[in-house]
Design goal:
This protein is α/β, with parallel strands linked by helices. It is built from 15 helices and 17 strands. It folds into 2 domains: about 290 residues, 3-Layer(aba) Sandwich (UDP-N-acetylmuramoyl-L-alanine:D-glutamate ligase); about 140 residues, Mur ligase, C-terminal domain (Protein-Tyrosine Phosphatase, Chain A, Alpha-Beta Complex), CATH 3.90.190.20. Strands 4-3-2-5-1-6-7-8 form an 8-stranded mixed β-sheet, with helices on both faces.
Length: about 450
Amino acid sequence: MSQTNPRPAATYAEAQAALLSRWPEHKLDPTLERIADFCSVLGDPQTNYDVVHITGTNGKTSTARMAEQLLITMGLRTGRFTSPHLTSMTERISLDGEPISEERFVDAFNDIAPYTHVVDGHHDHPLSFFETVVGMAYAAFADAPVDVAIVEVGMGGAWDATNVADGAVSVLTPIGLDHAQYLGDTIADIAREKVGIIKPGAVCVSAEQHHDAAVLIEARCAEVGATLLREGVDFSVVSRTPAVGGQVISLRTPKATYSEVFVPLYGGHQAQNALMALVAVESLIGASGALDDDLVREAFAEVTSPGRLEIVRRSPTIILDAAHNPHGAAACVAALEDSFLFDPLVGVMGVMGDKDVEGVLAEFEPVLAHLVCTQNSQSRSMSAHDLAQVAREVFGPDRVSVAPDLVDAIDQAAALAEAGAAVGNPLGGGGVLVTGSVVTVGEARAMLMRGRK
């Protein structure tokens, strides 16, 4: 099957439309042949820089952003590839900590577009959206050029298009159940896919894992001769204290202990992500040893992670969190209980239909006084009414309402939060949590931050 030779895109909208016309990223075709051929005709750009490769079920993007900030503070040029995006496709490809501009995105697309049809014509299926964007990112990083690329896996690991690159450091954040229809319905099945990013001679930095995942990670490292560093054995979060605007943490790595480090992000999971990022960067620089304490403090103080317990509005406070599976929801709930005192907290949730919706709802039920069910613009989104039907079984009928339009849902939740706070807490304190999907959070963020930098 072949697509016609594409004409150059004149605008960002044209480049975006051309990419979206390809096989969607939520479909998985387990092969690296197309992306390998694509990178080959592009000159194998992924071999031109060191790669930190990150997989896991949750925490990948935050870990990538933290590792990137450390490397930037060290004076290195960085490229970062993450997915999915919140509000703009340009977010997937970042240089030196900033998403590339729409103009540069168009240039990157036009640089690789003439080669897509060459690859399309040699395979039964054309390059997918995700494969094409991965090729774009790797080529853009080589063109910059960058010293280090921090690359987040899209789905799984072994057969993910990003895995055409060989990571000098492989990072495995906690592995849980997600994408079961593609990766398997047990921790072992999913871990078996994810350990595929661990390459011969690499350093593998692993979070504390379920036993079934830990066994497979150890076996893979032994098989390919990778050095395994394990949370709880080789490195750990020594302490953490919630603070205004984030938390203060102390981290023990294989090379040093870094004390009294402020991170402007909330929750124990973000302390763990900071630890993973720090050990990954230490491992990348190798023999040069521990990082300078002041450099680490400076870097982490500048970290951001949009859509991850992000406060975007006050009166009432509106928080965005892209939790979309039970593991992510549990981390969000723990952070809310750890760092906030909302009374009441009203949820706005829009989910994809292929997720463990009941599991996500069960995690949020103890902390949400009321849930407004909504939906996002994607065709995979579960309808607000179908979500409400499931939610009423978890929350009870009196704590669930429906607002299919996201704007209406947020307005309704804000009114409930303000009214509830006025009755139950004369000083205020009601909050709104928008969650359930990266797409839902991205659309809410675009709406709520319109006109703001």
